[in-house]
Design brief:
- This protein is an alpha/beta fold.
- The chain has a single domain, classed as TIM Barrel.
- Helix 3 packs across helix 6 and helix 16 runs parallel beside helix 17.
- The termini are close together.
- The structure holds zinc ion.
- Zinc ion (ZN) binds next to loops.
- Zinc ion binds next to loops.
Length: 339
């Protein structure tokens, strides 16, 4: 079979088209301390400066060997953009959202008319441009963003889960708002050279809110984002944390091309629950990729491959202290796999 460039190979694999072998990529964050030391771009600066962000993303390819470049490394830039208070990250820790800005529909109104040329979301777009100029012909350039449900949670706070049960009109209005933002931001990333869109929506889980609420509060919004990306010929990958087994068919009904599952989901079951979505995952970032040896990682990878995974990858964002040789063990296994 024809050998493909990594860019062609991933695009084909995400569409379910035949490829010469499995692509070796990560759809979740790729930054590690070893890569920071190798390229000289460290967190937290690499979350805030486009050149450094691009340099650390590039290290995922040049130092580790992932066949793609991907930004950013955290999922707080979007909430920060809307004024949520952020606990700054460190060299080893990603930033987190600690303050919230939306408690009612009037608060949503106040945030309308935003300008995407601000804050770290514009830094992410600049980093994508740098990466696309350098690698865009050869490698997939992945743009990643938090999904609309988890962004709504960041903006509304822990009340969010109660809100969707008790105040549907406000809950849906906030979903409309975050989704509209997600679409505008994703389009901007694509304009800058992103060719694959990763939606990280950690808490948008049917397990947490039930199938009925998932269908109402999540599916239509993921569908809008996916449709907007497909109009631009950009495949979409959806990552939700935890045991998503019961939600997989609903996740697929939003039209995403691939679903990233974590280690709580059985791979063979996941594959059986979807029609054509590519199942991606699901090596445990902590108990396998961080804390085990390359030998154990090869065995764990083989198990996942044997279970029929569509693309072998970390089950969630990797831990910053993950050794390069551990990631390389996973990459080797992906590269040597023929479908
Ligand atoms: Zn996750």
């Amino acid at each position: 079979m024809k050998e493909y460039t990594p860019k062609e190979r991933l695009a084909r694999a995400l569409k379910g088209q035949p490829v010469d072998r499995m692509p070796a990529v990560s759809f979740t964050q790729t930054g590690t301390v070893e890569q920071m030391e190798a390229c000289g771009a460290f967190w937290p600066e690499a979350n805030e400066d486009a050149q450094k962000m691009a340099a650390l993303a590039e290290a995922g390819h040049t130092v580790v060997g992932f066949e793609a470049v991907r930004v950013p490394f955290d999922i707080t830039a979007e909430a920060e953009f809307f004024g949520c208070k952020i606990k700054p990250g460190t060299r080893e820790q990603q930033p987190s959202v600690v303050g919230h800005v939306v408690k009612d529909t009037a608060d949503i109104e106040k945030l309308k008319g935003y300008d995407l040329n601000h804050g770290r979301i514009s830094v992410v777009c600049d980093a994508i441009k740098i990466l696309a100029d350098k690698y865009g012909k050869e490698l997939p350039v992945m743009g990643s963003m938090i999904g609309p449900f988890s962004l709504a949670q960041h903006m509304n706070g822990d009340d969010w889960f109660m809100t969707i049960f008790t105040d549907e009109a406000f809950g849906l209005a906030l979903m409309e708002f975050t989704t509209e933002f997600n679409i505008a931001y994703a389009k901007r990333m694509v304009d800058n050279g992103a060719d694959t869109m990763v939606i990280i929506d950690p808490t948008a889980s049917a397990q947490l809110i039930g199938a009925q609420f998932y269908e109402k509060f999540v599916v239509p919004y993921h569908k809008k984002i996916s449709d907007a990306m497909h109009e631009l010929n950009v495949p979409t990958v959806l990552h939700i944390c935890g045991d998503t087994t019961q939600g997989l068919a609903l996740m697929e009904s939003s039209g995403v091309d691939a679903i990233s599952i974590d280690q709580n989901v059985d791979v063979a079951t996941a594959v059986s629950k979807v029609d054509k979505a590519i199942i991606v995952g699901n090596l445990d970032p902590v108990n396998v990729l961080w804390n085990q040896t390359p030998e154990v990682i090869r065995a764990a990878s083989q198990k996942v491959l044997d279970a029929g995974i569509g693309l072998l990858a970390p089950g969630c964002g990797i831990v910053s202290k993950t050794p390069t040789e551990n990631l390389q063990a996973m990459i080797e296994m992906a590269k040597s796999h023929r479908y």
